[in-house]
Amino acid sequence: MAGLIKREDIDEVRSRTDIKEVVDGYVTLKTAGIGSFKGLCPFHDERSPSFHVRPQMGYFHCFGCQESGDVIAFVQKMDHSSFSETVEKLAARIGFELHYEDGGSGPRREEIGRRQRLLDAHKIAGEFFREQLLTPAAATGRRFLAERGFERSAADHFGVGFAPQGWDSLLRHLRGRAFTEEELRLTGMFSGGAAGGAGTNRSGAGGRSGGAGQERFYDRFRGRLIWPIRDISGDTIGFGARKLFEDDQGPKYLNTPETALYKKSQVLYGIDLAKRNIAKKRQLVVVEGYTDVMACHLAGVDTAVATCGTAFGADHIKVARRLLSDDGSGGEVVFTFDGDAAGQKAALKAFDEDQRFVAQTYVAVEPSGADPCELRQRKGDDAVHSLIRSRRPLFEFAIRSELAKFDLSTVEGRVQGLRACAPVVAAIRDGSTRTGYSQELAGWLGIADPNEVLRAVNTALRRGPAPARSGRPGSPATGTLDSGPADPRGVQRPGTQRPGTHAGTQQAAVQSAAPRHERPDPKDPAVRMEREALEVALQQPGLLSTDDWAQFSEAEFAVPAYRAVHQAIRAVGDAGTTPAQWLEQVRQELPEPLRPVVAELAVTPLPATNDDTLRNYCLDIMRRLFEMQITRLKAEKMGALQRMDPSADPAASQQLQRELMELEIRRRSLRGDR
């Protein structure tokens, strides 16, 4: 089991990773001044670029939607991955070996290298399959797609390919790319067995000749349409294959078996294409097959995904909740199932997992039994949208499915229906929702007194296991911390926080009690002065002398948000590490709501065209800040002197006059030296 990633390793990954290089994989960046780049924000729709990146500082900030953070935060937001997953991914990217606390472990260097080789093999295999779809041998596959309304562009968009009917076409292709037998075996794309035994390559092609017991390999997918199955970051980790020819004795659909890359209980087909739309629209549509996902996306339902040969389970829900930001503030999950008995059974299976969600869950069932692909073929894109709009709450579907088993026109049928449905309603963990559906059930049964149903539900509730506390709105658990603070490195530790670690939930609890900071008015000259000084201090700390830092530390900031940032800089001290590490230390000194302010200040382009003008600008800003502070102090001391009776305390009066003179000398010195 992986433990906490050591903090120093997180800092090392952050400092070694070029944020511009990472962002370039998602956003087209253009130069925006010295050491600054900008592009269209990937987190909201915009026409003019307001998304800025400062590689030297290691931070990004969007001046439109206020999203900001370091390279880890950027990849987390883009790939919807956890903190620890993101750090491990970035570490693998730069070839850095992570270390874990408390004897925990993570992927070793050799495992990282092996994983990359497997990913490379899948990428090459996917390209091979796509090329084969264009050959004469794939005519049946192309006809299959065309009959279902999928044109060439659709196949290209989803990466659909074709596996030739030969036994070793892919095998020879990958061997020609220098993959070892062990690597080929680990991909799951090949089957094999002892020579002469079951599964032997009947054609003799592709197998390694040798004595008894020597392993032979042959292509797992032959004569089939191929869909690449990708993880949330877009890496191909497996394949799904659909039978095309009558002489194929295998199952209709054949997927990659469990491998180091492919875990079917965690995989959602189409998640790489749907993730941003799911996060943006707060909607997840779960369909049953690859062609259903294609049909939904082409019809405009671009939040559709499908499981791969397994029911929608707990691990899928973890992925979905992360995408939906499933915190009780909205969002919906829509399950689409065939209208037959198998579809209803699948829907009821989904009900068992439903209450792991805070989002509202629904079922959309086409009365004719058509799946989204068939629906689009017969009636067009609007019919797919209508199917999703016709969704019903999953609770209602589960209860009505039970009621459908009984003749409710008779007293006996209604009694049996109540007995069957009471445990279903009792399984609803949110008390308010449970009461509401008890009343609905009374109406569906034709029972005049809703309390009769409520008593039956409460009896079923007492008989069954105590319902777990739910985060669903209206439940007693809403807003509580059940597990203690969550460490963003991947492990929850009840009530503990290590020095120097991310504060997690505990810090969030403190922040809720912290004062709220309004966004400063950028038109106020004093606000602008303080902002520009902080921009210089955060972006160019190396240009400031020891004396500059001393005067900066003594300065007083009037704007609450900027005063908090100034205090954080003072708490961390002079920049003694890399700019990115120092900036992260400053951010960690602030409550979460103010951390984006630091990122914003750190990426704002400074008005300079070369190193000389940059230096002059920075020193001039600091001079103006110090002069403003001196002017303020002079005004305070002048006021005190005017209120004082010199004859009553001549020593104090003289001391104030000396201090005023010293301040004036400092002010003149600032003007003369700069």
Kindly list the characteristics that best describe this protein.
about 675 residues; alpha+beta; DNA Primase, Chain A; DNA primase DNAg catalytic core, N-terminal domain; Dna Topoisomerase Vi A Subunit, Chain: A, domain 2; 5 domains; 6-stranded mixed beta sheet; 5-stranded antiparallel beta sheet; 27 helices
Characterise this structure.
The chain has 674 residues and is an alpha+beta fold. It folds into 5 domains: 7-107, DNA Primase, Chain A; 111-192 and 215-255, DNA primase DNAg catalytic core, N-terminal domain; 268-389, Dna Topoisomerase Vi A Subunit, Chain: A, domain 2 (3-Layer(aba) Sandwich); 405-488, no CATH class; 525-673, DNAb Helicase, Chain A. It contains 27 helices and 19 strands. The relative contact order is 0.07.
How is this fold's topology laid out?
Blueprint: H1 7-16, H2 19-23, E1 30-31, E2 37-39, E3 51-54, E4 59-62, E5 68-70, H3 71-79, H4 83-94, H5 109-132, H6 139-147, H7 152-158, E6 161-163, H8 169-175, H9 181-187, E7 190-194, E8 215-219, E9 224-230, E10 236-243, E11 253-255, E12 268-269, H10 271-281, E13 283-287, H11 290-299, E14 304-307, H12 314-324, E15 332-337, H13 341-354, E16 360-365, H14 372-379, H15 381-389, E17 392-393, H16 394-403, H17 411-426, H18 431-445, H19 450-463, E18 486-487, E19 491-492, H20 504-513, H21 525-539, H22 546-554, H23 560-572, H24 579-588, H25 595-603, H26 611-643, H27 650-673
Parallel strand pairs: 13-14, 13-15, 15-16
Antiparallel strand pairs: 1-2, 2-3, 3-4, 4-5, 6-9, 7-8, 9-10, 10-11, 12-14, 16-17, 18-19
